[in-house]
Design goal:
Strand content: 5-15%
Largest sheet: 5 strands, mixed
Shape: globular
CATH architecture of one domain: Up-down Bundle
Structural class: alpha+beta
CATH topology of one domain: Glutathione S-transferase Yfyf (Class Pi), Chain A, domain 2
Strand order of the largest sheet: 3-4-5-9-6
Number of strands: 9
């Protein structure tokens, strides 16, 4: 049954999204209204008689497009966390309409000329620095959207955008379906040797939900990775590993028609062709140059030089890591040939032998009901806010809602927290904005709202969920993104929070927060053994700290392989030259890694960051921003050392909040960093944090 605008929850912007009421049938009617309003506002702003003034052009366009972006953001969020066939269909049907609209705005030459005219008008100098930055960003984005193209080329350019959006969605759908579509059923307890009790209990519950005997394991990370890490059943490890690294590829399951289900091979090839064509149309040599235009890095060559330098520094450490692992596996585990499905298992056993603890032992000290208050305490201490439980409609009963307040109780922001993996939810962890801060027409300020999403193991057997230390780090990481979005003080929508921040600086606040997960003062107060209620022992923490950089050389090279592959793919790769994307992946791995890649591995086919997540020619951002975040955190270490106190230094936290978090995208990221640190960033802190400031010791 069709809905009218008055009863359509997607058209209600008076408060928080009405998640309990939103249905797939609301999407198309809501977009009919919102797209019509937005198009009308753009048309009016672009009219010749409309004065080239901020109040007549930028404001009306922003006011009309913000509700469209919010409503479509809600639909996209539900598509990622509560996928159903009906929602997927309606999302796919409307994606071309939304993409076409934004492409038409970006290509609107008359509107582009209005924006340019504002910058040349006498009144331009009276605008705030924030508004000048918005105009500068907008002119750049118009050019990247094809506004300066000849009119006869614009339809093709718009077609490229629509097709790429559709392919990104298809890629993501294939990864989710391929992950959901596989299950390993263990029939007897002998197959479960080595697995932690909570993993076994979760597998048992998963089988029971299907009224089946035995234990069900899936390719969702909380189920899959413990098998690789702990299972003594080598055949089971190999079976699940092969299924995992061939997901969404031509080696995946074959059903009717003789073709692999959910194969992303053609999607990748099509994406690359479309991106290359887009770059050529805009006058760039390759898509990497397009991608870097709004980023801190100046050229693909600069990025690759940065990665090469890091690879050179990391390689000796990685070679030592690899030699030690192979020697250990041969001597202690009887694995003369270390296969890919043995890596995590052998690494965990070596870690246990060397540091006398296991990750599963640590996990028992981090129940969710202690980790969350610990995270909130760090935030409150550093940034002078309070975090309180709040209520709002949610999309799943496991989702919780919180508010962030100033110490006087005034509302700063709110956020949803969706922690557990489940069917119909995209894998990984991310922060997204539900609503951005900006000043409304009546001078009230719209406070920001964030989605914080993870894929951790849910509570099982009546006990609270327990997080691995890596999951604790992930939670802090995503909350760092959330703080960037929520603690902004900028009232201009286009540069508040993470809006307008260079992509390769976006990871600074998230990676910065990870550092606190290695501080005794922090972990001591957020740990309580799930059975004994005892806090994390100092002795165990010291072992964790000693193991912090265990195989950091290998980990660094792994990230460099991903980053170099991404950059090479978008600089000069041509699939028509007879080399496949997976051939390139193997070449890059052989050049930069010390561990051979399995011949059947098809990891590019699930590389959602670059084919469905906006990181195309931008995956290097993680390492780039890690330099910034490590150096920023060093300011807290220096303050603690000078005062001989905790790194939870409120004065440094206040300065960090003021110069990094509050300013959002209102100025270049390098200016913000220098305002906080007093200088340009140095790689020294990153190398020190990773234990790579010196060549590896010889054993």
């Amino acid at each position: 049954m069709a809905t009218t605008p008055s009863d359509n929850p997607l058209l209600d912007f008076s408060g928080l999204p009405r998640f309990g009421e939103i249905r797939p049938e609301h999407v198309t009617p809501a977009l009919d209204v919102l797209l019509a309003n937005a198009k009308a506002a753009v048309d009016r702003a672009a009219q010749p008689m409309t004065p080239a003034q901020w109040s007549d052009v930028v404001d009306p366009v922003e006011h009309a497009t913000e509700p469209l972006a919010r409503a479509w953001g809600i639909v996209g969020h539900l598509n990622a966390v509560a996928d159903t066939p009906e929602l997927r269909t309606v999302y796919g049907e409307n994606l071309p309409r939304v993409t076409e609209f934004w492409a038409s705005v970006g290509q609107n030459l008359a509107l582009y000329e209005k924006y340019k005219a504002i910058t040349t008008h006498d009144s331009f100098e009276l605008l705030s620095g924030e508004r000048k930055k918005i105009l500068d960003n907008a002119l750049r984005d118009f050019r990247l959207s094809g506004a300066e193209l000849p009119e006869d080329q614009k339809p093709r350019f718009a077609e490229l955008q629509e097709r790429q959006a559709a392919l990104s969605k298809a890629f993501s759908d294939h990864v989710l379906d391929a992950t959901n579509g596989y299950a390993y059923y263990a029939a007897n307890e002998a197959e479960l040797a080595g697995l932690p009790e909570d993993v076994i209990a979760a597998a048992r519950e998963a089988a029971e939900r299907e009224n089946k005997e035995g234990w069900k394991f899936t390719l969702h990370f909380p189920s899959y990775f413990p098998v690789l890490q702990y299972s003594e059943n080598r055949a089971m490890r190999e079976t699940m590993y092969r299924a995992y690294v061939t997901r969404a590829s031509e080696l995946g399951p074959v059903y009717g028609g003789g073709k692999a289900e959910w194969d992303n091979t053609e999607i990748i090839a099509d994406q690359l062709k479309l991106r290359a064509e887009e770059a050529k149309m805009l006058g760039y040599d390759n898509f990497a140059e397009v991608s870097l235009t709004p980023k801190m890095a100046e050229s693909p060559q600069q990025v690759m030089s940065f990665l090469e330098d890091l690879a050179t520094r990391a390689r000796p450490h990685a070679e030592q890591d690899w030699d030690e692992l192979r020697e250990f596996a041969a001597k202690e585990l009887g694995l003369a040939q270390l296969e890919p499905w043995d890596m995590a298992f052998a690494s965990e056993r070596l870690r246990q032998q060397r540091y006398a603890f296991s990750e599963n032992e640590v996990k028992q000290y981090f129940p969710e009901d202690f980790v969350l208050p610990g995270l909130f305490k760090v935030t409150e201490t550093l940034f002078g806010v309070r975090i309180r439980k709040d209520s709002a409609p949610v999309w799943n009963s496991d989702v919780r809602f919180f508010r962030v307040e100033n110490t006087d109780g005034t509302l700063v922001a709110q956020f949803y927290l969706d922690l557990y993996a489940r069917e119909g939810k995209r894998g990984g962890a991310w922060m997204d904005d539900a609503r951005s801060r900006h000043k409304l027409d009546d001078n009230r300020v719209q406070t920001p709202v964030a989605y914080l999403t993870c894929n951790f193991s849910a509570p099982v057997g009546g006990k609270p969920a327990c997080f691995t230390h890596d999951e604790v780090i992930t939670l802090f990481h995503e909350f760092g993104h959330g703080l960037h979005h929520m603690l902004t003080r900028v009232d201009e929508l286009a540069v508040s929070g993470i809006n307008g921040v260079e992509w390769d600086a976006v990871e600074l606040p998230s990676q910065f927060m990870e550092n606190f997960c290695w501080e005794w003062d922090v972990l001591r107060d957020m740990s309580s053994h799930v059975d004994t209620a005892k806090p994390l022992p100092r002795e165990l923490f010291d072992k964790m700290l000693a193991a912090k950089n265990f195989q950091s050389g290998l980990g660094t090279l792994r990230q460099i392989v991903f980053s170099m592959f991404d950059m090479a793919l978008h600089v000069d790769f041509e699939a028509s030259a007879g080399k496949s994307v997976n051939d390139l992946a193997r070449e890059i791995n052989e050049r930069y890694h010390v561990i051979p890649q399995a011949p059947f591995s098809r990891w590019p086919d699930t590389f959602s960051h670059i084919f469905a997540g906006g990181y195309a020619a931008g995956y290097y951002s993680y390492k780039w921003a890690e330099v910034l975040s490590a150096d920023a955190y060093a300011a807290f270490e220096e303050a603690a050392q000078a005062a001989q106190s905790s790194v939870l230094d409120a004065d440094t936290g206040t300065r960090y909040r003021k110069e990094i978090l509050e300013v959002g995208g209102s100025r270049p990221a390098m200016e913000s960093f220098k305002a906080f640190r007093g200088r340009e960033p140095s790689i020294d802190a990153l190398l020190r944090h990773n234990g790579m400031e010196q060549p590896p010791a010889q054993h």
